[in-house]
Specification:
Layout: H1 2-21, H2 27-51, H3 56-84, H4 89-118
Helix pairs in contact: 1-2, 1-4, 2-3, 3-4
């Protein structure tokens, strides 16, 4: 499962990079694009950092940060979609993947919290 989420996050970041780089952006939309790029690539970076954690608490914390970045990414995608682009199938696909990744991260965090409560 951990390997799958790492790969999905990597491909998610890559698809975001390729999508954003193939468009022409005006000065206003570029502000949102930069924020989107930061948050989208942060998701996978924090999942990778979790792998090098020294404790379950630290691991969970990196996943929580990744989840927050993923939710922020969804916000920026929706702003970009609704404010600057007409309906775009590729962007909708990226948004769907962000939603799925956030659900995986949230489920993992809940599981980690449950393990803590069980004393494992």
């Amino acid at each position: 499962m951990e390997k799958e989420i790492k790969h999905r996050c990597y491909h998610f970041s890559l698809s975001m990079i390729l999508f954003l780089k193939n468009k022409k952006w005006d000065a206003l939309s570029l502000v949102i694009v930069k924020q989107l790029m930061r948050s989208a690539t942060s998701v996978g970076a924090n999942v990778i950092e979790a792998k090098n954690s020294s404790s379950r608490i630290e691991f969970k914390r990196y996943y929580e940060i990744a989840l927050k970045s993923c939710n922020e990414t969804k916000y920026w995608i929706c702003l970009l979609r609704d404010g600057f682009l007409e309906r775009d199938f590729e962007l909708e696909k990226i948004l769907k993947e962000a939603d799925e990744i956030s659900k995986i991260l949230a489920a993992s965090i809940i599981k980690l919290k449950g393990l803590k409560q069980e004393g494992k």
